[in-house]
Amino acid sequence: MEEVHSEFRFHKKILLTGYSRGGQFTHRFAFQNPELVKACAPFSAGTWTTPDGRLLIESMEEIKDPEMFLNSEANAAMVPERLRGMFEPRVAKVASMHAKKSANKIPYLVMCGTLDLRLDISKQFVNSLEVNGFVVQSKWPQTPHGGIRKYPNEFQKYAKGAAEFFLEVTRKR
């Protein structure tokens, strides 16, 4: 970020959005780097880290000690195969980090499809943000995970929602 700012004129804070693993990255980056983030719009993440360091995993209960859970190879058999890559020490450390205190100043837009297996944990994440004093909006388009070809009009709601949210946030001074 410092290198980019040294060569180009940009605002000091960035707008973050991402879908699926991109959603996982965006909310965790914002929690740890609130001084760099103006607003965050994570969508349909397969895992969410709550501000108080709990882990929400698709099709599972909340994990209160993510580092211990993710450092156990035996636990990998309990999650969908596509999520097994998170069972490594580096990911375990990131997934269990608490949000910095000033992170609750970042406004959030959380979206997930109503036909997505990740809907329940996305709603739990929204609740965790609200309980921890974050300003959060949520939208629930009628989509499964990755069904853009079958539901193109509904999937457009993610891009439109993010654009409208970021315009709203950046217009406030």
Walk me through what this model shows.
There is one protein chain. The protein is α/β, with parallel strands linked by helices and 173 residues long. The chain has helices at residues 2-7, 21-32, 66-70, 89-95, 119-131, 152-171, and strands at residues 14-19, 37-43, 47-49, 55-57, 108-111, 136-139. Strand 1 (14-19), helix 2 and strand 2 (37-43) form a beta-alpha-beta unit. The relative contact order is 0.16.
> What distance separates the N and C termini?
23 Å
How many helices does DSSP assign?
Answer: 6
Please report which band the strand proportion falls in: under 5%, 5-15%, 15-25%, 25-35%, 35-45% or over 45%. 15-25%
State Rg: 16 Å
Low-confidence stretches: none
Shape: globular
Counting copies of identical and different chains, the oligomeric state is: single chain
